[in-house]
């Protein structure tokens, strides 16, 4: 998928990718390296999902860092 997004960027097509760079102590090293190598824009999503049923029951832990990655 990251290769396809790089092709979009080379063809001057805008993209936006929502993903997580850290969740429950696990770091998405592949994504972080890809962002750094390609100098894409990273917007940190600061939103409270505390009422969502798919998030951890431990409400005291801010262990998820969600981002929106763009080339614009």
Overview of the molecule:
The chain has one domain (2-70): Rossmann fold. The chain has two helices and four strands, in the order αββαββ. The protein has helices spanning 2-10, 29-38, and strands at residues 16-23, 26-27, 41-44, 65-70. The chain starts with a helix and ends with a strand.
CA-CA gap between termini: 18 Å
Order of helices and strands: HEEHEE
How many domains is the backbone divided into?
1
The percentage of residues in β strands lies in 25-35%
Radius of gyration: 14 Å
Low-pLDDT residue intervals, each spanning 5 or more residues: none
The CATH H-level homologous superfamily: Vaccinia Virus protein VP39
Number of strands: 4
Note the main sheet. Answer: 4 strands, antiparallel
Q: Calculate the mean pLDDT score and round it.
A: 88
CATH class: Alpha Beta
CATH topology: Rossmann fold
**Fraction of residues in H or I helices:** 25-40%
Number of helices: 2
Feature tags:
Rossmann fold; 4 strands; globular
Q: How would you summarize what this structure contains?
A:
The protein is α+β, with helices and mostly antiparallel strands and 72 residues long. The protein contains 2 helices and 4 strands.
């Amino acid at each position: 998928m990251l290769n396809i997004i790089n092709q979009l960027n080379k063809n001057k097509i805008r993209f936006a990718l929502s993903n997580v760079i850290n969740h429950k102590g696990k770091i998405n090293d592949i994504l972080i390296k890809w962002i750094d190598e390609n100098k894409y824009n990273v917007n940190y999503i600061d939103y409270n999902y505390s009422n969502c049923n798919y998030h951890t029951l431990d409400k005291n832990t801010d262990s998820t860092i969600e981002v929106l990655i763009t080339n614009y």
